[in-house]
Design a protein that fits this description.
Length: 222
């Protein structure tokens, strides 16, 4: 992949030569917002492309959920970092993020405690691989959830079906890798799902590997 294409993705994809070029030249052509989303969390590489990070962040500002439940923290430097930043900007709410890998989970907690203490009030790290463990945090109504776990279509589907029972009009669902194997079953099933979903944002290649923001319009009739 060429340098220009990588500028649509994120800083951590650049090799050493490309980083020098970016820091000496292109960084100054980027707006402050583009720099924020492109560069991400220095010292903690995460996933998600520039446009996806921006869409995730803006969805939180637009909908102002009390919580966003995330599956798949990874290092905490990608989606979690931007979700936590959005809640910090709102000054309320938090991302509750679940990671199955114990060492990644511990690394996130340590990193945020030491390096990002200002974001710590806006993020809660949960270690586990069973989405059902999040039930006590949800309460009676689910405001927002984000699916970005394993590249496993049936696991993603189970996670969706768990969250669906708490959905109501206005619940926001976001999903990454919308065009990959991870989302294959959910993509096919959604037209038949119990809830009606309106697509608010849909990003496609080359700026995304598929990222969607959907808003629940309520339970389907009949
Ligand atoms: C694609 S990565 C997430 C990337 C992250 N959202 C980012 O933007 O940097 C998927 C992560 O989900 C984790 N994972 C896999 N199965 C899981 C499960 N059942 N529950 C929670 N996390 C899971 C993996 O260990 C991996 O860290």
């Amino acid at each position: 992949m060429g340098y220009q294409s990588k500028l649509l993705h994120h800083y951590d994809e650049l090799n050493t030569r490309q980083r020098i070029r970016y820091n000496l030249m292109d960084r100054f052509r980027f707006s402050a917002a583009d720099r924020f989303f492109f560069e991400g969390c220095r010292g903690n590489p995460g996933q998600m492309f520039l446009a996806e990070r921006r869409a995730l962040y803006e969805a939180i500002l637009r909908h102002q959920p009390r919580h966003c439940f995330e599956i798949g923290t990874y290092t905490g430097g990608g989606s979690t970092f931007f979700l936590a930043h959005a809640f910090a900007r709102l000054g309320k709410g938090k991302v509750i993020t679940m990671e199955s890998d114990a060492s990644l989970h511990k690394g996130c907690v340590d990193f945020y405690r030491k390096r990002l203490p200002e974001l710590f009030p806006f993020v809660e790290f949960v270690h586990g691989d069973r989405v059902e463990a999040l039930s006590p945090n949800i309460g009676d109504r689910l405001d927002c959830f984000f699916l970005d776990g394993a590249e496993d279509a049936s696991q993603t589907m189970s996670q969706y079906l768990f969250f669906e029972q708490f959905c109501d009009q206005g619940t926001v669902m976001m999903a990454h890798d919308w065009h990959t194997e991870k989302m294959k079953d959910l993509r096919a099933m959604l037209p038949e799902a119990a809830m009606e979903w309106r697509i608010e944002v849909c990003l496609d290649p080359p700026v995304s590997v598929g990222f969607v923001v959907m808003v629940c319009e309520g339970r389907k009739q009949g």
